[in-house]
Design the sequence.
């Protein structure tokens, strides 16, 4: 096997992991909250917009993953041309830089989805408490944002 | 920024004016009526449960009638009709509506009856059709269904399960009744599971034939009539047509009654108000000739209310300040700039007694942080245009949604501002479009800097904005403590913290660690470093010593103080939390450029331009939606958790005036 492109492969692996795992997490979280939301709507259709917001909250991890993936692809030249070779060490560094959002994105989206379900329950019973209910899932999101930040800063500084 | 000052209002008036006075109060909607308290020999409360229930019932009927009208004669509504809000109602319209309420109620009954009769007609028609279907195999019979024969001959009309023909019936009968001398069978028709037949035999052998037939499952038809089936079918067909016509007529009448929609909507609101009035009436104390109303009213409108009531009616209105031990209901009042964010404060909790209304301080930061997170001039402009259009087009919209739109309007302005600062217009659309279609890169330079070029710089500024935001929160806490004349508390929990934190920051800035992170190095003169050190030390020692000063035991006091000092770590996490400003700001820009890049991959040319436009529109719509949501949620979070966490708890009760606020369709025209 020709090992000269291993670096590029590793960088691609990083970018893909970011989109992959964060996306899986978000899909799971949004799906979970969506099921709870559908239940809430059968009871009270007026809650639609509030429930929709709560459902979408765990969706951001997937976007953060996409963001890191995209930035990595551009930085390495895989997107927009200019990617020729990359030494293994640099490729590995890109891979590692993508890990925070890949892993934290996956896990935090799942937990955020579960918290969103709980928040949807609150809104079903007390629609006027939306502001507070929204906070709980937003707290989980913090860690996805921190992971995103580290991934982005790392990718940019490479 | 203010919580409106409330006053207690006591109204004492003659019962003869009761209806008028309550109506006036309801129309003005500025008094929250409280339960009148205990009864005694003179003053009693009226039991209005039955009247209230009746109003509720009428209201329900009106709403049902409207639902019926909407089913048969739907109102044409625009896409944004939910923004239209309630229609305005003048006093005269109200009076006319009230006078006509009896007629409207009849109309409501008529509509509900019509709806019922349409259902009945449909059911009757279905019944006729079912009978017609059952009659179909019998149509070959030219005597009535219940025909029994002549004097000498017996006739049988009936059906046998399964498929038969004349031959097989003759065989079966011959097998069961071999002695029978003469009989004849005619098959009239068949359907899936039965054969309909007509049999004749001599009268004296009728028993034998019937037994033989019955052994093969022969039964008399379910539809017994003395009519020939073909005639009966004609009757049924006519009946079905008549039911159809009746249903159609009812629908037509309903369609005509749709002109009454306004009146019925009024009735729905009228009975809503009536029910509310009866609820209040049940809480008031009344003697034989007089009644009392007790409640809260905002001070600014109290005098004009008193004057208005006393001029029109024989009554005594007394205004007093709210006693110390009572929690007056809370109504916020802010200027046009900050009022739109009142909804955000309300969703967290209204200020409790002794707290200031944080809306004014918060509003500026709200717009500021929101714009920073969304940070795209084109998106911001779209928000401004959209909100301004909706606000202009639907001036009557509900106050909640109006405030929200105004809030997003200001947020849009801030977003536009930050977009220009960061040089982001639909992300890098300008560059991409000029490169793809005109083959010449044109870039609108950022007024400040592009976050993608120097994310560390924006991160440092995010922390700076965060520190300013948090320090402002601490400042408001100080203001509240000073206002309550708790100078010692002010010093211990505000001044000492300022000293500690500012000292720590000033110590951090010239350090190598900071320089390597931020890429900027500060060099402070010696005295400033010295001052910073001492500020931090005094602050820290002060907090350890003073924060638990109500504890007698020195050890406990120091331990609690040390624990309080540990709270400095929460300041660190609070500041780090503002890194979301950078993350979300980058997210908008990067996703926008992903969309632009994808769109530009189609290349140059007419077809590509169309594809570009499509991808551009869909992509950016999605991006706006997602990032608007993100910016909204995280601005709220920064306000609720980080900012409010420093000084605000909420927990006040909202002002719920006796008003026409629960109306669905109409509101009273404001007079001033």
Sequence:
């Amino acid at each position: 096997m020709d090992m000269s492109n291993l670096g590029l492969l590793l960088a691609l692996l990083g970018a893909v992991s970011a989109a992959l795992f964060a996306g899986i997490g978000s899909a799971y979280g949004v799906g979970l909250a969506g099921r709870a939301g559908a239940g809430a709507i059968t009871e009270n259709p007026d809650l639609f917009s509030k429930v929709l917001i709560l459902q979408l909250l765990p969706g951001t991890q997937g976007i953060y993953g996409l963001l890191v993936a995209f930035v990595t692809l551009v930085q390495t030249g895989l997107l927009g041309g200019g990617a020729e070779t990359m030494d293994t060490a640099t490729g590995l560094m890109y891979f590692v830089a993508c890990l925070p959002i890949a892993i934290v994105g996956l896990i935090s989206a799942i937990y955020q989805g579960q918290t969103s379900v709980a928040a949807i329950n609150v809104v079903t019973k007390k629609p006027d408490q939306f502001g507070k209910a929204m906070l709980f899932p937003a707290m989980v999101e913090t860690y996805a944002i921190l992971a995103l930040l580290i991934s982005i800063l790392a990718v940019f500084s490479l | 920024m203010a919580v409106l000052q409330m006053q207690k209002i006591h109204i004492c008036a003659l019962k003869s004016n009761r209806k008028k006075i309550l109506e006036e109060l309801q129309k003005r909607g500025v008094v929250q009526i409280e339960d009148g308290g205990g009864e005694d020999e003179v003053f009693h409360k009226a039991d209005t449960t039955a009247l209230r229930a009746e109003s509720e019932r009428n209201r329900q009927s009106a709403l049902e009638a409207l639902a019926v009208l909407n089913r048969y004669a739907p109102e044409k509504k625009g896409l944004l009709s939910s923004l239209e809000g309630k229609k305005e109602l003048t006093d005269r319209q109200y009076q006319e509506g009230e006078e006509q309420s009896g007629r409207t109620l009849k109309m409501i009954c008529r509509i509900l009856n019509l709806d019922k009769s349409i259902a009945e007609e449909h059911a009757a028609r279905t019944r006729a059709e079912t009978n017609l279907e059952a009659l179909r195999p019998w149509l070959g019979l030219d005597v009535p269904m219940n025909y029994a024969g002549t004097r000498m001959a017996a006739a049988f009309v009936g059906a046998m399960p399964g498929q038969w023909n004349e031959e097989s019936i003759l065989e079966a009968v011959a097998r069961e009744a071999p002695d029978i001398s003469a009989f004849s069978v005619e098959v009239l028709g068949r359907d899936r599971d039965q054969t309909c037949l007509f049999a004749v035999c001599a009268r004296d052998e009728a028993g034998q034939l019937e037994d033989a037939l019955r052994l093969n499952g022969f039964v008399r038809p379910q539809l017994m009539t003395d009519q020939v089936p073909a005639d009966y079918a004609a009757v049924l067909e006519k009946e079905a047509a008549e039911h159809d016509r009746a249903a159609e007529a009812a629908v037509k009448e309903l369609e005509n009654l749709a002109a009454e929609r306004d009146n019925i909507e009024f009735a729905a609101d009228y009975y809503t108000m009536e029910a509310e009035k009866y609820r209040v009436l049940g809480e008031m104390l009344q003697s034989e000739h007089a009644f009392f109303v007790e409640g809260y009213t905002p001070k600014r409108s109290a005098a004009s209310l008193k004057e208005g009531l006393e001029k029109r009616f024989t009554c005594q209105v007394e205004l007093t300040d709210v006693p110390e031990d009572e929690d007056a209901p809370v109504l916020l009042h802010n200027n046009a700039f900050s009022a739109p964010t009142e909804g955000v404060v309300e969703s967290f909790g209204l200020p409790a007694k002794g707290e200031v209304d944080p809306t004014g301080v918060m509003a500026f930061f709200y717009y500021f942080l929101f714009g920073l997170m969304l940070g795209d001039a084109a998106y911001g402009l779209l928000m401004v245009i959209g909100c301004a259009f909706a606000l202009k087009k639907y001036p009557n919209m509900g106050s909640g949604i109006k405030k929200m739109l105004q809030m997003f309007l200001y947020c849009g302005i801030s977003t536009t501002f930050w977009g220009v600062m960061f040089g982001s217009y639909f992300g890098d659309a300008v560059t991409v479009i000029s490169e793809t279609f005109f083959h010449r890169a044109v870039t609108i330079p950022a007024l400040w800097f592009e976050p993608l070029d120097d994310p560390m710089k924006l991160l440092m500024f995010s922390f700076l904005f965060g520190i300013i935001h948090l320090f402002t929160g601490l400042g408001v806490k100080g203001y509240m403590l000073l206002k309550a004349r708790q100078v010692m508390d002010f010093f211990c929990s505000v001044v000492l913290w300022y000293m500690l934190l500012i000292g720590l920051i000033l110590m951090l800035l010239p350090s190598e660690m900071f320089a390597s992170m931020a890429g900027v190095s500060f060099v402070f003169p010696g005295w400033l470093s010295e001052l910073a050190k001492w500020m931090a030390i005094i602050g820290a020692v002060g907090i350890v010593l003073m924060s638990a000063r109500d504890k007698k035991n020195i050890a406990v006091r120091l331990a609690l103080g040390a624990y309080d000092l540990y709270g400095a770590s929460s300041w660190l996490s609070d500041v780090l939390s503002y890194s979301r400003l950078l993350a979300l700001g980058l997210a908008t820009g990067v996703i926008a450029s992903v969309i632009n890049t994808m769109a530009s991959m189609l290349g140059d040319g007419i077809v590509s331009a169309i594809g570009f436009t499509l991808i551009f529109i869909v992509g950016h719509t999605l991006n706006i939606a997602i990032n608007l949501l993100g910016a909204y949620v995280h601005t709220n979070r920064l306000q609720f958790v980080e900012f409010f966490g420093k000084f605000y708890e909420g927990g006040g009760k909202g002002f719920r005036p006796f008003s026409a606020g629960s109306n669905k369709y109409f509101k009273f025209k404001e007079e001033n």
Notes: Chain B has a mean pLDDT of 89.
